[in-house]
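Justification of computing resources. Each target in the renewal requires a structure prediction run like the one illustrated here; the chain below, 205 residues long, is used simply to show the kind of job we budget for.
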Amino acid sequence: MATSSPVLALLLFFSAGVIVPGRTSAGAVPTASPLQQLCGSLGSFYVTPELCTSALCSSPTSRCRSAGNTAQLAALAASLAAANATAAKASLESALSLSLARDTERARQARAPTPLAQARKGIRSCLQLYEGAVPALRWAARAVAAGRYRGAREVLEAAQYVASGCAGMAGGGEGEAAKLMPLENDRFGSMAIVAHAVVASMSAA
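Resulting structure tokens:
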């Protein structure tokens, strides 16, 4: 019996090796990239794939998509956490300096502590947290790069609470201290959460 034209058309379609979206020419589903594998496995740490990808690929020069394996991504995450903490610390120092310069004349005139002077107490306490966190996170980044996850995991677990602690010291988003708090504090908070989840997943593997 002759092959009907619709069936013949289908045979020709598939035999031509037409690539179906999401599949290779051989019909196999492509293997997920290391980034997709890692970011898709962090649900137990309450980190979504979107948050993970956003944090690891936040910079146009990030190596997140070219990483060959999850170990390289873990090293990247720890390195970014240290870099973000360093940036937050520098921004806090700058905010304090600018605040002091603005407030000096006002304090002379008032002859009493100004709201900014009170706010600086919270910012200084926050800065102390970062002064302890930055060297610890740099150590953690070196440890993760060397494949030593356990101690680094503990450092990153503690680092998760630095940003929220600073937000509390700044009055929970209200008042003069909140105005002084740089955006880098929030950015570090997100990065620390992701970095901890990534390294914790590696140490549990």
